Amino acid sequence: MLIFAAAAALLLIIACLNVSNLVLVRGLARTRELAVRSALGASRWQIVAQLLAENGILAVAGGAAGVALAAIVVKSLIALAPADIPLLTTVRFDPRVLGGALALTVAAMLLFGVIPALVAARTDAHAVLRAGARLSASRGPRRVRELLVGAQVAMAVLVLAAAALLGRSMLELENADLHFDDSHLLIAELGIRYDIYDNVGKQRALAEMVTAKVRATPGVRIVSPVLTVPFSGAGGWDAQAATDGQSVDAAAGNPMFNLELVTPDYFQTLDLGVLRGRLFTPSDGEGSEPVAVVSESMARRYWPNQNPLGKRLHMGKRPERTATVVGVVPDTRYRDLRDLRATAYFPLAQSTFTFTPTALAIRTSTPPAAVISDLRRAISDVAPGVFLANAAPFASFEAGPLAQPRLNAFLLLVFGLSAAVLAGIGVFAAMATLARQRTNEFGVRMAHGATPRDVQSLMMRRGSTIAASGVAVGLMFALLTNRLLSSLLFEVSPTDPTTLLGAGSLLLIIGLVATFVPARMSARIDPVLALRSEN
Fold first, then answer.
1. I need a labelling partner for 284 at 20 to 30 A (CA). Which of 13, 110, 340, 419 fits?
2. Taken in order 488, 493, 495, 496, is the CA torsion positive or negative?
């Protein structure tokens, strides 16, 4: 929320700087009018008050339009937002929001309207009236305008760089390696009447019957029970173990890991290969030596720089909860899309836990959705009190963990593009004003032999200098502030040079395009008409 609040604040400041720049130009264009008012007896503060009143009307009109637009946009964003955002249903456009918008409008008007009004009011009435209606081209106001435009570009780089980082992070997350094959993989959740299957023995027998029935369903290649559906996090199915020789205090510092109760078909169902040792076999059943298969990171954390095969995991104080590690498999993103979680797998047939898996991972030979209706009938025929509660292809579960990153990237992209457009408008306005102020100068240059290309190059150099300076400052601040995005990024550094340079290059191109039109117009002026405009 702080990041989005900062982005919104930067966008507001860019808009205010833009308006402030335009108001300053408008005030300078009215130099003769203000000089006449001053000559007729108006004080400087009366002129400032008049300009502030005009700016206030502009601010109120803009604020009212913004409030009306926000009332529509809020509803749209709520519709796009993930359903698991806390208190999402309480988000609404209420009087407090309206009051905040009004306060921002007044503050923006006072903060960004006073300085242009003071600059415009600082006119020497006698000098202006003697000089005629020519628009002032003094360096002071021009430097102020260019500084405002450069600040807009710098802040636009900040917002656009953050949006680019989140966008690239989202793409990396969408293409993250799960470390298993998710194609033709179906996840089914069972509904069970626990008043009928009220103990582990009955539940395990039911799981075996359901698994056998599902395996015989047309289109199903292989099936295995699983404790949880994909991307459910720990979900309560996590644990901590001790190793041989560890004290109670030392074991308390061991990392947590995901707990999985599986059949020997599980690894083939997910197409999860073994790295070391072996996988479970049908002989790893009740009465045989308790065994376990661990993931790569778990082996590394529990037995650093050691061979984990043959090591023992102590799951509790009872000896029957001790298992020997017989294999190592890759870490997967089955529980969490963002993180490769440490996992320990135990044979369901050897389980001493007081729970049984109620979900199924099913590898199909046809599109997963095509077998759902057959599965529903097959499971309902197994026994009373069990049914297919839900079934969906594995890919559909990815929508959940991707929803928030997509919303984050979308919102910041809207902010970033809006900031870039406003910065482009600011550059265009500044260069168009500069072209108008220097019309006579360009006429003199052309009269002394300068070509239209020379004039155009002069304007392009000035515009590119303003844009490049703003981009450079923006990139320096982005290197410092983008670290705040670290918790939202996936496989992307907050200081990634490619992304930052891409954002800066886009703003530089926008600045050059915004400069080209006024520069082209300056190159087409008629020297004779330009010199005549002096009077």
1. 340
2. negative
